[in-house]
Structure formats: structure tokens, C-alpha cells
Amino acid sequence: MDPAQASRLCSYPCAAFPTPKATEVNRFESSMDNRKAILEYMKQIEVQEKTGSLYLVHGAADHTELTEMKEVIRVYFHGGLVSAMSSSLPEYRLGQYCLKEGIIDPPDLHKQIKGRDHRPLGEAIVAAGLAEPVEIQQLLQKQAIDVFRRALENGFRIESFEPMSVHLGIPLKARLDVLLLDLARTAANTFEPGLYEKIGLIAEHTFATLPWQPAELAVLDCLLQPKNLEELMGETGLPESQLVACLQTLRALGMIEIREEETEEERSVALTVRERLPLEQLVPEAADALLSQQLETVTNEHSFASEQFASLKVRIKESRAGSPHKVITVTSPHIQDGKSLVSANLAFSFARDSGTRTILVDCDLRRPSLHRYLGIPPEPGLIGYLSTNLLRPYCFMRQVQGLFVLAAGGISDSPIELLSLRKMRELFDYLRIEFDVVIIDSPPLNPISDTRLISGFSDDVILVIRRGRTPFATIEQGLKVVDRKKILGVVFNDLDEKESQFSYYQHSYYHPGKDRQSSRTRRRKRNAP
Fold it and tell me: How far apart are CA 230 and CA 242, in angstroms?
């Protein structure tokens, strides 16, 4: 298939841009600047939580039909959030982005489009096992930013808005300010503050509403009290070029300004505000997280599995009564025993308790998987923190439905070296102060020894074993890796409801089951002739 033929197949969610009926649309004839008009109207859609499609076209207003326009940009909204953006030009369609990123090749792309049965292309690619939902969501983000920049920089105007519902299986779910943040990061650098000029925030902001990068978050935290470039470089450890790039982004968003030297009173107020800024207002929220259905403590709070994790949480609290233990490592003798799923469900269960600030840390730097269950990118994360100088740990965290998360940050070529750094000890000293519960998803005990290091930072260890699949010899070998005095208990994974009960032998043993319907289904299968 030649590139031209492939590009014609790259529409999302469909190739055609239907002409809205006159009775279903609102037409706009405005003397305002096109860019300002687009931003103001998109904000209205967001505030009013509208669902429909916004059509943007190039050139002066006339009566040309949409299908006859040289280029039409379509913005899909659902409940006021941007689900996707697409252009009638082939190079700005999702299929092209999939080809560029190597997710799919032209023959497979042609096959998916032909066989998708009117499904959006991204959904069809995920169903075929060619990409993860979070990968498609990242491409939708890139596509939206490119299309949005094109609309704002090339004089596009609002043609119409059509109230309609378009089902997208993997929606972007982006707010306008998130899109503007991405645009600001790539704006031309015109901000050149003097070395000793004071820079400060224009107004108080809740930073957690935007997906800041670690360096940006560090700069924002420092600017709660006005500082000059030299002071900012000293506190953040950022080189001048990277610091100025962060400041340019904040300037493009209208968040900072050059200030005169502040008075002693202003300095005192700024310090007071900084001391009272909680992590909940500082750490970015992953509002677009695509949680796995296997995280039943979130997706199905009343299921049997959710109840079992709640019971496990209670038993952990009882076993630690009167002790300061708060850091729990979850590991398994072997891969695919389910330790990441158990650690995530347990962490969400703790986070549901009012006043219990909980963080989930992915310390599996060889085969990280927590980010896939949580539906968030692997970066930023632990590797980024351990590889930087002065940036604080919160700069690399995210919030997912009330749970703080420090993802792995990618895959490391030298995990033992990273985990052995003094910064790792400093990290857990910090987490013990800031959090009530720390859940660590650790690598398996066999055949590597990462967990020996990680368990040294924790108070308790929970061992996850998959019934019928984890050899006893592997369990015995794994138990030699960790201090047995720290083993709080064992989770037997993948048991039926009737087998899910507590028993005791030196430690409490926990057996999570699946919901009642699934257990009945498995019993019927076993009893079937």
C-alpha cells in the first residue's frame, strides 16, 4: 500500500465530515479575533457541559458547504470535555499518527479500517491487541494539539456547532486549559527576564488541576514567593535554559509576571502561604486515567473482591495496632502471580478511608505494570526522581481518584544501582512524613534480588501467591530473600468465593476471590460433563 493510499484511511472516528442541518446548528458571525472567539466558545461548551461537534473552517464567512471546504476541523465534545480533534486533511488523522509511532503498519491499518464495523479506529486497534488504551489516548492528545495549534495560528473561524452524541470508545477527555498548557510548552520563547528581576505568580492557583511536568511543578512551588533566576536555579537545580523554558510556559498561560522587590510584609505572607500548601493542591490529578476493570475497589466497590480487600485492610490495621508501621511491600515469588493488581487494589482501599493519605509506589523497574492498570503514562516517576538533583519527590507524583501514585518512570537498565542510591532512602524518609500509608509494588522475589533492597525500606511484606501456579520450591526460595519477621501475611490469588476465608499459621493469610457471579460460572464449568 502506498503512503497516499494509507493516508486516505487515517480518519478518526470517520472519514466523512457531514454537513450539519440548518435546524440543528448555531452559526457565528463575529467581529472578534478568530482565536479569541474559538477559545471563548470552547470555554462556554465546557462550562455548559455540552455534547456535540464544533466545526472550524478557514477563510471568510460565506455559504460554502462543509463538504466543499478545503479543510474542516472537527472538535468532538462530550459533557464539555474534548473527546478528539480531527481534520479533513489526511496528515492530521489518527491513522497517520499510529503509522508514525510504529504502532501499526499500512497493511494492518487497512485491515483494521475495513473490519472495524463503524467503530472508531483507535478502539479497533486496541481490540485487535495492537496497542494499549493509554497509547491511543496519548496519540489522541498529540493529534489534538497539532490540530488545535493549526486552527488557532491559521485564522480558522467557527462555522457551526452541532449538538449530537458520537461514541468514542477511547475518548481524550481533555479540558481546554490542559490543551492550552500543551500549546504553551511549544510556543516561541519570548520571555527573557533579567538575572536579578523578581518573578512571581500573578494570582493564587490550585496547581493540581493541570498535568505539570516535574520541572514546571518545582518552579511553581518556588514561585509562591517571588524569586529571581539565580535563586530559582539554586532551589530547583535546573539549568538556566530549562528554567527559562518553564517560565516561558507559565508566562504564555498568564500565570507569572516580573515584579518589583517585595516588601517584608509580602515576603512574610508568601512564606505563610507556602507552608500551608497541601500536596492535594500541588500534585497533578490524572483526570483522564483509564482505570482497568480489574481494579474492583474503584470500578465495582460493592463486588465480592472489593469486600475482601476491605477485609484485608482491616486485618492489616489490626495486626499493626500500636505500632508505627506504615510502609508495606507487596511482592510475589514469581512473575504473573498478580502482585501489582493486589497492591493497586489494596492502595485504593486504604485511600478510600477519610483522612488516610495513601501513596502507591511502583518499584518494579524491570517490568513495571501499575501504570497500565491505572491507565496513566509511566512517566514521570521513580526513575526520574532518582536521576535528578534537587527536584522534590512530589514533582514526580500524580493523583488518581484520591490515591497518590509514584509510577516507575520507565524501565531501567541498572535497577540495582538506582535502588541502592541514598536518594532512595531519602525518598522513603519523606514518604513516611507526608503519608499515612505507603504501598510498594516490588519486583518478584525470583530470580532477582531487587526486593531484598526494597524490603529494607518497608515495615511489612505481603506475599502474593497464585493458587496452582506458584511452585512450592519457588516460594521457599523466595522466602530466603526477605526478613521473615517482616512478612505480614500471604495473599492467595485467584480463589473461588467459597475458598475465600481467613486462616492462621504464624501470620494472617488472605484469600481474595472474584465476584459471586464469576465464581458460580467457574463452578458450573467444573461440574459440566
Answer: 13
